[in-house]
Amino acid sequence: MTTPSTTVPAIQIDRVSKTYGATKALQDVSVSILPGQVHGLIGRNGAGKSTLLRMITGLETPDTGAVRFFGEDAPPAADAKAWQQRVACVYQRPSVFTNLTIAENLFAGRLPGNGPSVSWRTMQNEAERILAEWRIDLDPRSLLSDAPIEERQMLTIAKALDAGTRIVLLDEPTVQLEGSAIRRLFDKVQELQQDGVTFVFVSHFLREVTAICDSASVLRDGKLLWSRTGDDVKSDDLVEALLAGQEQRRHRVESAAATATDTAPALELRSATEKGGAFTDVSFRVAPGELVAIGGVGGSGKYSVGEAIAGLRRLGSGSVLADGEVIPTGKVKASQKAGVGFVPADRHKDGYVPQLSVAENMTMGVMDRLAPAGFFSPRKQNEMSRTLIQDVALVPPNPALAVSGLSGGNQQKVVLARALARDPRVLVLISPTAGVDIAAKDAIYALILRALADGVAVVLISDDVEELLVSSRVLIMREGRIAAELAEPTEEDIVRAIEGLE
Amino acid sequence: GGDAKPADTQLSYSQPHTDPFQNAENVGSMERFKKLGYATIPATNADRDPAQQITDIQTLINKGAKGLVISVGDADAIVPAIEYANDQNVPIVAIDEAPASGNIAMIVRADNVHMGELACEEMGKRVKAGSAVITLDGDPVTSNGRDRTNGFNDCMKKKYPDVKLVNVATEWDPAKAATGIETALNQYDNIAGIYNQSDATFFPTILDTLKSLGKLVPVGEEGHIVQVSVDASPMAMTAIRDGYLDAAVAQPMTDYIDYGADYLVRAIKGEKFKEGKTDHGSVIEKRKGNLVDLLPTPVVTKDNVEDPELWGNKKFALEAFGASK
Amino acid sequence: MNSARTTVITVPSGRSPFLGSVVRNVRELSVLPGLIIVAVIGAIVSPAFLTAPNLTLILRQSAELGIVVIGLTFILLTGKLDISLESTVGLAPMVAAWLLIPAAMGGLGTMINPFVAILLTLVIGALIGLFNGLLVVKVKLDPFIVSLAMLILLRGITLGVSQGKTLAGLPDAFRYIGSARWFGVPAAIWVTGILFVIAALVLRYTAWGRALYAIGGNADAARAAGIRVDAVLITTFIVASTLASFAGLMLAGRLASVTSGMGQNLIFSALAAAVIGGVQLTGGQGRIVGALLGVLLLGTLTNVLTLAGVPTFWINAVYGGVILLALFVGRFGARPSRT
Amino acid sequence: MNSARTTVITVPSGRSPFLGSVVRNVRELSVLPGLIIVAVIGAIVSPAFLTAPNLTLILRQSAELGIVVIGLTFILLTGKLDISLESTVGLAPMVAAWLLIPAAMGGLGTMINPFVAILLTLVIGALIGLFNGLLVVKVKLDPFIVSLAMLILLRGITLGVSQGKTLAGLPDAFRYIGSARWFGVPAAIWVTGILFVIAALVLRYTAWGRALYAIGGNADAARAAGIRVDAVLITTFIVASTLASFAGLMLAGRLASVTSGMGQNLIFSALAAAVIGGVQLTGGQGRIVGALLGVLLLGTLTNVLTLAGVPTFWINAVYGGVILLALFVGRFGARPSRT
Ligand SMILES: Nc1ncnc2c1ncn2[C@@H]1O[C@H](COP(=O)(O)OP(=O)(O)OP(=O)(O)O)[C@@H](O)[C@H]1O
Ligand SMILES: Nc1ncnc2c1ncn2[C@@H]1O[C@H](COP(=O)(O)OP(=O)(O)OP(=O)(O)O)[C@@H](O)[C@H]1O
Ligand SMILES: [Mg+2]
Ligand SMILES: [Mg+2]
């Protein structure tokens, strides 16, 4: 699959630097990617991957350095159309229009028609073609807001790959996707690669990188660590490059189920059913110190169960009990008082307040403790957050920093710290390591282990099979119900259960 | 329709904006119609919007009004409404302000520029040369504000050039008037008078402001600030009686109301009016093709403040202003 | 596969366009019951309501508001706001009239050609829009606050230029569009109607129109998709201000003069009309037909309140109450599935 | 470890709070140059400017605006808006005065106790806030448009209740807070000052105050973190409206009467003051000290324009121009690192 080295590189990044305020996001980075290659771009959170992609799409301009496509200088920054003809990109941040139809989403920025007028008929037909190609079962005329999250991600991918450009950039495209969707994506990538399309692929999942990339670069703190082609790209090298000397641990939490039968459960769901909602008749128990993982395809209702325990959703029937006491549902405060700590699925949406400080974000849920008589002392708040910062090993360990200035992984740690701030008896974690680099992942798992050791009951809800494997007791949800309970499952067991192939 | 019975003939009134003075004109006119035995259509209020007043007048006519008294909000912008009424043969009497053109049965008004000049005379004879006078300027968007400012300013400049004028933009807002007075008193130590373009609007606020500054001194005592106002509302009458207000140029409001309604009723009966003296001490003149009954604007001072014919002493005015004698 | 998703799929594709468009219409159509109720009340309280002159009057008095609402809707769709549109309604024709009429009547005395004056009105509108657009897009000032400051400034300039006077004596050509009749119906009504149709077509069938929705829905994504967000936004401000200046021209024609308070408070009615008509202030949602229905509701309401003889002191309270009610109905008439 | 990150860490922890607070201050302090320039101009154009009575006057005339701005800032911090505050300034004391004064003077004739009337003023304010809050939080109507409808409705009710009259003859107790002097300085200034201090403390040191920032920054995250978003929002609307009714009480005391136009256009000044002072309309950002500086800027500006004798016709244009300039300076004086 390697291309003759004589060809001009499809993308040549030449000594590019970019600085945001005090942050040197990119320093003197040079990478060449040959036509028809799938180039993996990896690095820890905040290493500069997304920034580098923005330089290649023309969305931002480098402070110094240049980008060339097929030997030609990049178009001027203002000429959006020219950039669009060269590069298509799936951005890390969701870039969709929920207020528009699926068809329009697929053609935003390149509406078909003559001159200034738009041909809805052509657009509809073309959209149907794309949806059929990608086996996405949606009506192109329906609003995107009606489409499930993971399908939206598939649509942005489909759009990028349909743009007909010779270069496609994918920034963590698989984070929202489930197994079969990822397979569809990879098939498509390989198909286009046959036609000579060049890809840059960003992911924290090294298996994905080794599976489809034939060259790769590693960024660290804005600098290029190395760039390699072909057989030189090995999984071990990647791990080594990312961990930079730290050792990688394997996590597997032994089931506490044996003890669970004789101890009173810390958390119990009894026939919990959301009114007109996402799940029905869900029952399970979690003992103190026990880890239970919940998996399932997108839309199976697993996230909603977590949100219900946390008080973000109201039950129609059934109940949630903490330490044997029924918690009123639909009230976050009530759940918190019952000892539930919660890490939401989407940290950007539900996790943190970007312009507020680390300290404030971490202590947001415990203000009643900091200020029993109404007024609180910022000193106390800082002290408390310093402890939490140490607990989660936040980098940088500064409580006064605004969370918007932290890298994704560290933002996730702030959200986790917020969940821990109340000394929870029960932790509900939804995809706690989504978009987080392996080192940070390690740190987060270590924290979960410590919580378990302290007797906290943990519910870990995830789309990621690898993450589910951490637990020795895995519940699988399908269509809003618990479809299977697996003890000591293998990866294959989980995949089969999720896909319903018992 | 000259032959229709009054009870079958509907009359109405169009008000341009809300303030106690305009409200009193509206209420008084509608009552006058009823007293004369006519049916009425509820009056309209355009809320400072000239376009809305045009629409209001058209709507009243569409609804069957056979004659209208209007208080004109904007002399020029009202013209299309007058033209519409002319097309429909509905007679119009304008009070308080003259439309710039169109066919009006009669315009019943006083001259605002003249009121400013009268105020200037009253002020000028009471303040010394070298002193300063605060003028509380009404909103220049309204023609009465503009005319009262210009009438006063021009007269002062001509006849009393040695009196300094300190103009305060009030936009008819009592709070702005109060602040303006205070600012001017801080700024100048030779303030000898205040020209108040509408006592109906600015009383009691500015009296109270002066009081709190210790500047409310009765006429004739050391430190008295001369006050001359326009309107002569019930509150101004009280202030004159109490000796705080030196003189008020009276808007002949009751006359607007009474003669306005009377002219309308006569016009509906087909009467045509002529230039010349009237039976109520005024003269009808022809201006820009329309007849204007220019009502006298008496100056009210301590000497004539008890005159029951002054509108500020009438019962309906006391009620409309929530004042008592 | 859960049930929700299945539903979407099993809708036969032949039927869904119709269903889809009905669903998309619900928000706009939620004004209709209100409009009908107000009209029925009007017909009951006064036989004059359903007469041709009265209906013409409603349309004529709504024309300027309608034109401002078209521009405002464009801006709201992008998620921005421009409350200074009402001051443009006043300023643009004021400056033109000032250059147009003799010094004796309050003008500057240059007495330019009326057609030049009309052109000038529109150019002033466009320039104000450009300035607003630049402040919002390039200086990145909040559109609400910047247009508030502009509102005060422009009103102030209008007052300064006119010295508070109303400028009358406008030549017929300048007044034409606001005062002529075509086939017995005021030209302003025809023109406004045509502008609404054009606006609907532009929003639906041009790349620029669709870009407004995209930008209002997700400006970052629009930028990433290659839409020239800044350029589209600035042109939107220009178009809206130009329309406002045109509305001012029409109003001047109707008033046979230019008053220094022209347009005052118009923006409140315009916002109410657009929002009652289903245009979201958060951007990306709403259609021009809804805005039109909103305009008609307000116009009919004003008319019916006058016909009904609601006491003048209570008319504003009733007006406000009905708007509130209409918002309520609109909210529940078309509750979005998720908030 | 890149250099930027290292820098942050190596800042001695003792210094960083100070640095942090300076950085956080920049946006608010960006009003200062403007305020100083206006004051210097004032001192130049008139020797009366820097006298105690004049400075007292500036503060006194800014008091009502200041109190409304406190409430408005609370609401803006949550990312909501309430433009009906200005109508509450008018309505609450109007209803109280109507119940308070004799029928002969335009009242209802119930002649309730003045202290009951004061309490009633505040209760009416609170109820309006509750109603607004419920409409925004529970009915999920857009705060701008719902408060616009409320503005029209409440103004209408004020007009209806008063029948357009100015209610004078208020008893001294009712007027006390707006007219008394404590230690030679108007009580209203003391009270406003104290309210500003309390507001600053509440925003900085109470869970409720911090919740406003959290909600304005990210309401979903605040909810998920256990902040009772709906309750906090509703109390914010109540507090703001109650403050507005208190401002109305103070204004009535100053004017020695209640007029049916009281509070009109006040919200524009309040919004301008808050935003010039660095409070973001998008929520989550701004401090009370900035809002205070904004209020002082506007108050000083009005005073200086009067002292300078700017012609009546041009005063609004100058006022608008200066506000626009202040927004400009604020924008570039403290350009946020990310937009
Ligand atoms: N617009 C911006 N303003 C300020 N700082 C920025 C901006 N964009 C990125 N940064 C900073 O630049 C650095 C690189 O960010 P980037 O998003 O490229 O990382 P990444 O490698 O994509 O990380 P992740 O794996 O978490 O997505 C980070 O420190 C980030 O905080
Ligand atoms: N409030 C609600 N009202 C109606 N339907 C809902 C509601 N919340 C969720 N759903 C639907 O219920 C189903 C399950 O949602 P949920 O987000 O819990 O699933 P999930 O397994 O977490 O899926 P995903 O991976 O897409 O997040 C989805 O189809 C979702 O659209
Ligand atoms: Mg990234
Ligand atoms: Mg989910």
TrEMBL record, chain A:
InterPro entries: AAA+_ATPase, ABC_carbohydrate_import_ATPase, ABC_transporter-like_ATP-bd, ABC_transporter-like_CS, P-loop_NTPase
Pfam families xrefs: ABC_tran
PROSITE patterns in alphabetical order: ABC_TRANSPORTER_1, ABC_TRANSPORTER_2
Gene Ontology molecular function: ATP binding; ATP hydrolysis activity
Domain ABC transporter, first and last residues per copy: 11-246, 264-498
SUPFAM superfamilies tied to this protein: P-loop containing nucleoside triphosphate hydrolases (SSF52540)
Keywords: ATP-binding, Nucleotide-binding, Repeat, Sugar transport, Transport
Protein name: Simple sugar transport system ATP-binding protein
Higher taxonomy: Bacteria, Bacillati, Actinomycetota, Actinomycetes, Micrococcales
Automatic annotation (TrEMBL), chains C, D:
Top-level taxon in the UniProt lineage: Bacteria
TM regions (residue ranges): 31-52, 58-77, 89-109, 115-137, 144-162, 182-203, 231-256, 262-281, 288-307, 313-334
One Pfam family hit: BPD_transp_2
GO molecular function, one term: transmembrane transporter activity
Membrane topology classification: Multi-pass membrane protein
Assigned GO CC terms: plasma membrane
Main location: membrane
Keywords: Cell inner membrane, Cell membrane, Membrane, Sugar transport, Transmembrane, Transmembrane helix, Transport
InterPro entries associated with the record: ABC_transp_permease
Places the protein is found: Cell membrane
PANTHER family cross-referenced by the UniProt entry: ABC TRANSPORTER PERMEASE PROTEIN YPHD-RELATED-RELATED, AUTOINDUCER 2 IMPORT SYSTEM PERMEASE PROTEIN LSRC
Function: Part of the ABC transporter complex LsrABCD involved in autoinducer 2 (AI-2) import. Probably responsible for the translocation of the substrate across the membrane.
Quaternary structure and interacting proteins, as annotated: The complex is composed of two ATP-binding proteins (LsrA), two transmembrane proteins (LsrC and LsrD) and a solute-binding protein (LsrB).
The name this protein goes by in its record: Autoinducer 2 import system permease protein LsrC
Species for this entry: Schumannella luteola
Taxonomic classification: Bacteria, Bacillati, Actinomycetota, Actinomycetes, Micrococcales
